[in-house]
Design brief:
Radius of gyration: 23 Å
Helix content: 25-40%
Number of strands: 20
Order of helices and strands: EEEHEHEHEHEHEHEHEHEHEEEEEEEHEE
Length: about 425
């Protein structure tokens, strides 16, 4: 992976007529989103919101007395990884070894793979990465005796005596991975403590599947999980099953991250505890799903404002084939649609109808359907009509599934000036 990714005509949104350009140098070209240099659709990150979010989340975890290891799967952007680490992140989180490679190359010294590793290729790859980055510490999840045996078998077949750092995962019935009972978890922890191929570094859980965007429900459900993890950790501590000088306790998606703080701040008798929050989507936030959850976080925390949406996909109005319907030049291939339709949030007219600047989109503009390459936007025929050539900024929900559709994104100022760029490596 190149340290400074080169943008060229192979990258969607980069103008075919332009000379190739390193990501770090795009800002010096003095382009503007409104001068139509870029090819639409184009994904952008609003720099003021991005900078605000980085600082806000770091301040939040510092006030709470925990560490932040944001989930890298959200963006898979080394430029954003470096920003998060420079802002004070303790480390980064990943879902697999491929993602870890990008994070280590971006400078991460600590990483959690919030997943079970069970294949030879993954273990071979992690072994290579740890030899390439001898100063790095990497933990991955274990949730079964079968997986533990897989790790032992790999070591025997490879003649490799490496001892892996692992976190025991406590899961949720009917949901994803993780031990389902304290009995299973305790037996597994005892087996880990007796094994030469793993070291038990701590306990992990993921609370995201419990959220319903109902504060009363979410508090009760997540608090029950937190109490369950705390009770398990105390059991493990009494039996002194830890494999290191410090205990890691990790949780935290991007929806109800405030509710797991009590778990991350648990103290045990035998050694220090490091709580690690793994929220990832905070860096760009979104315009619907996480936005509605965040309102509840703000209410619980007594905040008037917190994160700001930074990610938009800009499209052109390419046709207004009938009153009340405009077709935009972005579709399923360009933006998230797994949780809701994209939301017109800003626009800039091709002529001077909006004063030649970026303005808030009329509330009556709504995307009702997507094709592969088109958004079907309805509007009130008695109100503001979008015209062919107008630009429309589409806000998204669930940023993860927009980032993976782009090899790069422009970083813009609020007036549309392009001040930089980031690359992605999915």
């Amino acid at each position: 992976m190149e340290h400074d990714f080169v943008l060229n005509a192979a990258c969607k949104g980069f103008p075919l007529a332009a000379e190739p350009c390193a990501v770090s140098q795009l800002g010096v070209r003095a382009w503007n989103l409104l001068d139509d240099t870029l090819a639409y659709p184009v994904a952008v990150l609003r720099r003021p919101a991005l900078t605000h979010n980085l600082a806000w989340m770091q301040d939040f975890v510092q006030r709470k007395g925990v560490a932040l290891a944001p989930h890298g799967k959200t963006t898979m952007s080394p430029e954003l990884f470096r920003m998060q680490l420079q802002a004070g992140a303790w480390g980064l989180t990943f879902a697999n070894v491929h993602q870890l490679r990008v994070g280590l190359a971006a400078g991460a010294q600590r990483a959690i793979i919030a997943n079970q590793l069970v294949s030879d290729a993954d273990l071979d790859g992690l072994d290579v990465l740890l030899r390439q980055h001898p100063q790095a510490r990497v933990w991955f999840l274990v949730d079964s005796q079968a997986q533990l045996q897989t790790l032992a078998d790999w070591g025997a077949r490879r003649g490799n005596a490496r001892c892996w750092d692992v976190l025991l995962e406590l899961g949720i019935a009917g949901y994803r991975t993780g031990c389902r009972t304290h009995g299973q978890a305790l037996a597994l922890a005892q087996a880990i403590a007796a094994s030469p191929v793993v070291r038990l570094g701590g306990v992990e859980c993921y609370e995201g599947g419990l959220g319903r965007c109902d504060s009363a429900h979410d508090i009760e459900a997540v608090s029950a999980l937190v109490r369950s993890v705390q009770a398990l950790v105390q059991q493990l501590d009494v039996q002194n099953l830890w494999g290191g000088d410090e205990v890691l306790l990790s949780a935290g998606g991007s929806a109800v991250f405030d509710l797991v703080i009590p778990m991350l701040k648990l103290q045990v008798q035998s050694r220090p505890v490091q709580g690690v929050l793994r929220s990832g989507c905070y860096v760009t936030h979104d315009h619907w799903n996480y936005a509605r959850y965040l309102k509840l976080v703000e209410a619980r925390e007594g905040l008037s404002a917190s994160l700001q949406p930074a990610l938009e996909v800009w499209a052109k109005v390419q046709s207004v084939p009938e009153p009340g319907l405009a077709i935009l030049s972005a579709g399923r291939r360009d933006l998230s649609f797994d949780q809701c339709m994209p939301i017109p949030v800003r626009w800039a007219a091709q002529d001077q109808r909006a004063g030649g600047v970026i303005a808030a989109a009329p509330e009556a503009w709504q995307v009702k359907a997507l094709s592969d390459q088109h958004a079907h936007m309805v509007f009130d025929a008695a109100g503001v009509w979008p015209q062919v050539g107008d630009r429309v900024a589409l806000g998204i929900s669930h940023p993860c599934t927009t980032f993976d559709k782009w090899r790069w994104m422009a970083v813009i100022e609020d007036d549309g000036r392009i001040s930089g760029a980031i690359s992605t490596h999915f």
